[in-house]
Sequence to fold (319 residues):
Amino acid sequence: MINALSYVVVHTPHLQAWIEQAEQHVGLQVEVMQADACVRLRADQKLQRLLVSKVDGEASMGMGFEVADAPSLATLREVLETEGYATTLGSAEELQLRGVEAMFHFRDPDGLRIEVCHGLADAPTPFVPGRPLGGFRTGDMGLGHIALITEHFEALSHLYRTLFGFKVSDHTEAPFRVEFLHCNPRHHTVGLAHTGGPAKIYHLMLEYNDFDDVGRAYDMALTQPDCIGVTLGRHINDHVTSFYLKNPDGWMFELGWASRTVGPDWQAEALEGMSLWGHDRTWLPEHKREEARQILQRLAAQGVRAPVVTTSQTAKAKQ
Fold:
């Protein structure tokens, strides 16, 4: 029933730092809605893909998922209410800021705000990146993917798989339990991880059209190594080459390139690990980092490899 991750809503005490990182490092377009209070961040032709507002208290983040139309929105709201979720219709101000036709919101089992909408509007002007780059891969696959660390794995999996209609792409138990879920051709739109730690946002993946834009973002990050949460590497499942950049609120952007897509005949499988190479997760306890290193060494010894399929190559293959 869910078609894509449409947008992300951020409330932060670090608004200016967000603006600078989003524009100068990530390359998003910043549109100021109210000075020192609220900005829209654009990644494509849509009116916004991240809505960032200043707060005096604790930072928070929520996600906006899209459905096809008003009847689908009403149906999903009824399903959630039947399951015991208390839903609330979006206010006129919330709809205006997001640029959507309709929206409701609720809290997931970890307390995270989830919005469900339809009709995200196009912007009246072309997308202009904050720094020279080849754009982001969005379209019908939505903004990107989100990864959550959860304390309620089974309940959250039920929400996404049974109520939202996501399907399993693949899963793993090492170095921690993870389930990757898709709702469109993007390999996964949601990743659910149970690490044994408290629930939190892990990362938001934004996919560049050009590999060089990943490298240039990594160059900038290397000048401030503490901002790198996960080093450059390549995932074993979606084949993305990426690194993870800490944002001002402490969770991360995964900045990547060349994700694979899935189709209706996709067969879920158990993964041997999380990455083919690289991706040292600096936030993990040392024993878990060592477990991840051992997995990489084992995959290297086996000669495990994956093809690179770029967006242009995919387009040519469909002609």
In short: The chain has a mean pLDDT of 95.
